[in-house]
Amino acid sequence: MLNLQQANLSDISELCELENSVFDEFNFPLSKANFRYHIQKNYLIKAVYDEQIWGYILVLIKFKVPRIYSLAVSNKARGKGVGKALIQKVCDDFVRLRLEVRADNQNAISLYEKFGFKTQKIIKNYYPDSCDALEMTKAQDAF
Ligand SMILES: CC(C)(COP(=O)(O)OP(=O)(O)OC[C@H]1O[C@@H](n2cnc3c(N)ncnc32)[C@H](O)[C@@H]1OP(=O)(O)O)[C@@H](O)C(=O)NCCC(=O)NCCS
User: Fold this and answer.
1) CB of 83 closer than 6 angstroms to any ligand 1 atom
2) Pocket test for ligand 1, best of 107, 119, 137 (most atoms within 8 A of CB)
3) C-alpha angle 41/67/7, rounded to 5°?
4) Where are the alpha helices (DSSP H) in the chain?
5) Is pLDDT above 60 for 141?
6) Where are the domains of the chain?
7) What is the DSSP letter of 74?
8) pLDDT digits (tens, 9 = 90+) for 38-78
C-alpha cells in the first residue's frame, strides 16, 4: 500500500537520487542541502511503497498562499496514481495553494487541473531554456 509521510533527514540521499533521475539542469533540481533545509523548514511529503520512495511533494509554507515548489514521481512509478495521491494530500492540508509549472508540461498541468487549479497568468521565459511558466492557483475565488 502507498504510504504518505512527512520526510525526515534520513531520506535525503534517496530523495536526491529520485530528484536527479526526474529533473535535468534546466529544471532546478534540488541538492542534498536544499532537501535538508526543506525537510526542516517546510512541508515535504514522501510517497513510500515497498520501503522505497516513489515520489514526493514540497510545499513552501512561509508564503501567505503556500506554494507547491516541487512534485516528482520516479519514472518506474508513473501512471499509478502516486502524483494524484500527493496532490490530494496537500489539497486536504492547505485551503489555498499556488504553483508554477512549465507551459510544455501537459501531464502536470492536467493533473493540477483535476484538483481545481486554474491558470492565473503566463510568465514569459521563466525557465533557463526560455520556456514559459503557468502560474496556477487553487481556490482563487478566496484570494
Ligand atoms: C507529473 C507527475 C508528477 C505525475 O505523476 P504520476 O504519479 O505519474 O501521475 P498519476 O498516475 O497520479 O496521474 C495523475 C494525472 O496526471 C496526468 N498524467 C500523468 N501522466 C500522464 C501521461 N503520461 N499522459 C497524460 N497525462 C498524464 C493525468 O491527468 C493523470 O490523471 P488520470 O490518471 O486520471 O488520467 C510525474 O509525471 C512526474 O514526476 N513528472 C516529472 C516531474 C514533473 O513534471 N513534476 C511537476 C512539475 S510542476
Assistant:
1) yes
2) 107
3) 40
4) 12-22, 32-41, 82-93, 106-114
5) no
6) 3-142
7) -
8) 999 999 999 999 999 999 999 999 999 999 999 999 999 99
Please tell me if the CB atom of residue 73 comes closer than 6 angstroms to any atom of ligand 1. yes
Q: How far apart are CA 122 and CA 114, in angstroms?
A: 19
- What local confidence, expressed as pLDDT, does residue 50 receive? 95
Share above pLDDT 70 across residues of the chain, in percent, rounded to a whole number: 97
Does residue 128 contact residue 108 with C-beta atoms inside 8 Å? no
Q: Which atom of ligand 1 lies nearest, measured to the CA of 102?
A: 48
Q: Cell 529544471 sits at which residue?
A: 27
Ligand 1 atom with the shortest distance to the CA of 99? 48
- Order the strands of the 97-102 sheet from edge to edge: 3-6, 43-49, 52-60, 67-73, 97-102, 133-138, 118-123
For domain 3-142, is the CATH number 3.40.630.30? yes
pLDDT at residue number 6: 97
Res 140: pLDDT: 52
Ligand 1 proximity of 111 Cβ (cutoff 6 Å): yes
